[in-house]
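In the design runs reported in the main text, the only information available to the sequence generator was the tokenized backbone. The following block is the verbatim input for one such run; it is reproduced so that readers can re-run the procedure and compare outputs position by position.
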């Protein structure tokens, strides 16, 4: 079984509160990746509440974003349209513990051949989830498609890719 993880392809990270030109550029590439995928697909959604600014993350990044139920929290329309048969997991933190736990259970029932990650932001949530999955499933190959990821800045994107390579996560197209 092959798994594609689509990380936080939400409006606020593309053209909303924390959007970047680099994030907008990868949307068609992520859509193409989803449409061409033959395995299972999981998507994550960064999920905050109205009290975001009182949280540790909110004090360190004082930009309200991905507040549950808002337009910014929604998956980008083109991505949502491409996701026809998938499991969506909300997460209040950078890494999704429920994603890792769900994939450990799935792996016990049917071995996972590989996990591929795409999405936003390379240097925060993609790297956090890649490292978490590597910790929970150390013998499953973890790959990141760099052409389908964007970081907060191009430099932080490159740094995150280099860090993941050091942690034995394969990086494609980067």
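Verbatim output:
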């Amino acid at each position: 079984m092959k798994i594609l993880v689509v990380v936080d392809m939400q409006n606020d990270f593309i053209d909303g509160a924390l959007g970047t030109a680099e994030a907008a550029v990868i949307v068609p590439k992520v859509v193409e990746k989803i449409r061409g995928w033959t395995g299972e697909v999981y998507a994550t959604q960064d999920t905050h509440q109205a009290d975001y600014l009182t949280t540790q993350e909110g004090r360190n990044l004082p930009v309200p974003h991905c507040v549950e139920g808002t337009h910014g929290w929604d998956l980008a329309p083109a991505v949502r349209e491409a996701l026809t048969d998938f499991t969506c997991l909300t997460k209040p933190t950078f890494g999704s513990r429920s994603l890792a736990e769900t994939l450990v259970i799935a792996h016990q029932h049917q071995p996972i051949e590989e996990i591929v990650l795409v999405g936003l932001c390379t240097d925060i949530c993609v790297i956090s989830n890649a490292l978490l999955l590597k910790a929970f499933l150390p013998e499953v190959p973890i790959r990141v498609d760099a052409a389908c990821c964007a970081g907060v800045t191009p430099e932080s994107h490159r740094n995150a890719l280099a860090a993941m390579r050091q942690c034995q996560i394969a990086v494609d197209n980067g």
